[in-house]
Specification:
Layout: H1 2-22, H2 25-45, H3 50-61, H4 67-85, H5 92-114, H6 127-154, H7 159-185
Helix pairs in contact: 2-3, 2-4, 2-5, 4-5, 5-6, 6-7
Length: 186
């Protein structure tokens, strides 16, 4: 039993050594970006804790695993708990930063998950991906700013209700638009 476990550990170690020797700079760059985005999202959502950086590191090492979802759920839960405990931390810049960083973790982990370790890409191959990611991030900031500022335009009293309804209408409209565009392409 012990020798079988040792053999399994040795095989896993050899596999990781081969992957690291073959890995390209693009692979390391994407994983570094995942680590930075996941770590920054966790720190902005709550505060600096060494355990949070361990979670970010696990997301960067295992982008094909459930760790990406775990990171997104933990970041969101920390954000909700922190803003419930201290509503002053619900600043616009924090809301937008957490949203953009969560999207960046998602999209870079998806890219790292499909690219092989020894990938070689032609020059400019990642430019459309980076432009799309930038556009989605800018739209996230614009929509977040609009929804955040909506209660001030409506007036006191029914702020939260109107902001919630506006956010739901915006999400449904976006879903309908994306469905329409996906069907139109086929």
């Amino acid at each position: 039993m012990v020798s079988a476990t040792a053999a399994h550990i040795r095989r896993s170690s050899d596999t990781w050594k081969r992957r690291l020797r073959r890995a390209s700079p693009i692979t390391f760059g994407l994983r570094f970006l995942i680590f930075v985005a996941a770590g920054a999202g966790l720190v902005i959502a709550d505060r600096f804790e060494p355990l949070l950086l361990v979670i970010a590191l696990l997301v960067a090492i295992f982008p094909r695993s459930l760790m990406v979802t775990v990171d997104i759920v933990i970041t969101t839960a920390l954000w909700l708990l922190t803003t419930i405990i201290d509503p002053a931390r619900a600043d616009l810049w924090r809301i937008c930063a957490v949203a953009v960083l969560l999207y960046l973790v998602h999209v870079t982990a998806a890219m790292a998950a499909v690219l092989p370790y020894d990938v070689v890409l032609r020059r400019g191959a990642l430019v459309p991906w980076a432009l799309r990611t930038g556009l989605v991030s800018l739209l996230t900031i614009a929509f977040g700013t609009a929804v955040y500022g909506l209660p001030g335009l409506i007036g006191e009293g029914r702020d939260l209700q109107y902001a919630s309804v506006a956010a739901i209408v915006l999400m449904v409209t976006t879903g309908i638009l994306l469905t329409f565009l996906a069907k139109r392409r086929h």
